[in-house]
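Worked Example 4.2. Read the sequence first, then its structure tokens.
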Amino acid sequence: MPVSFLTGQIVWVLQAMAQRPDVLIELYPDTVNAAVELGDDWLDAYDIAEHQQLLIGSDIEEIDAFVRARIGNPQFWKQDALAGHADWQYLRTQARQALEARGLATEKPDRSKNEYIFGPPSPD
């Protein structure tokens, strides 16, 4: 088992990433692109862990490098790519393996842990 210290935010994103595309999409509001939001959530969670100098493990570092290598690829970040792009299947597998290696749950995470706050429309 890899020795690591993961924040709850990284665990949530890994659990989301490990889900089938339809389940992953349900974790985000209908008004957003789930692929983009998941990528943003990953980058935020990883950057926080890195800033806190947490020992996160080489498998997590590999997932981070894989995600960051696709930042400039708009096809990867389309919501329909979640089901049809081979790289998303690879990420699902890697996320599941990272969770399993640590004895963490791989089922769908609690949507309420990834909170969106909606306010009144902004003035134009």
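Now turn to a second chain, presented in exactly the same format:
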Amino acid sequence: MAEPQVPRPDAPTTVATMGPHNDSNDAKAFFLEVAELLDLPANERRRLGAGVPFTGPGDLICRFQLVRLEGRLHARPEVILPLVESDIRRIDANQLLAVQQVLLAEMQWVLGHSAEGLLQACPSAWVTSPEEAARQLDLGVSLADLALELLGPAPQAPKAGPTTQ
């Protein structure tokens, strides 16, 4: 019997939405268990399976991608870093690539651009159990903190100085 193919990180994915992927009982149960494992507040638990950003551990914005392959759910978290495009442009490209290299080589996580225009991190692998999904999200929050630390403090807008007349 052939091994089921696991989606590649660059493969087109269906971001979890209330539709055919996670409107099923198994998807609802999957996300309910993930929410319980993460000890999310009730208002965030509802958002978890809706494919919309929710406040995750460490107060970071998170979201889950979900695909169904050969009848089995595959999920991976997205952790959105609080850096907007203008902040990202101020970061030295070599520094950003060095952080990307560390995350990919050591932890198999990649940096990317979120739908909201922010920097995001997500694992290159998909998981199939709620325990693995919760563990991946916890790891992602730690890696996001590390990435923010390595990238330095968020750039600040220049302040206006005194004017001379």
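Notes for the reader: The two ends are 81 Å apart (CA to CA). The chain is about 40% helix and 20% strand.
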